[in-house]
């Protein structure tokens, strides 16, 4: 796993309040705890068995045609917001959202499991938020080090005790002649990171440095 640290300049109290209000308006909920996450992950594993291909955005298997994410403005950066019936689905959408900000995912031809078109990674954190950070940071590292862009991401295992996440992605190496160049994502941040849950839905908010 690749780890990194990110220093962030502080935002004003008014901006922070505005962001928090925006999150509250969209989700309306309480913060996910490790205990509630463990219960949710049991349900998630059942959903994965029932929906291995992610039909309707379920089961942590997201591609560019299942859009369960949006981009929210945030000063000079951008906030990724992804959601799903469980944490794996929301995290999968989060990774696709990040790649979609850097290029047009409709132009990506996903490979299947080989070194050219597929990647599998395992990340580990010390708690829920650090796991989310490491998950997104590792996918970003694959782009920075290999030029690899995913149009399809699957999160197939999360261990709530060890904060370990196993994920795979399909895509291809970025090619200037084929792919459109969007906005570069420089780093993932912890700033105002939130994981929220209500009524069978998980929402994840992460600010990325662009």
Automatic annotation (TrEMBL):
Belongs to the archease family. Residues 69-210 form the Archease domain. GO terms for biological process: tRNA splicing, via endonucleolytic cleavage and ligation. Keywords: Calcium, Metal-binding, tRNA processing. One of its GO terms (molecular function) is metal ion binding. It comes from Triparma columacea. This is Protein archease-like. It holds the Pfam family Archease. InterPro entries: Archease (IPR002804), Archease_dom (IPR023572), Archease_dom_sf (IPR036820).
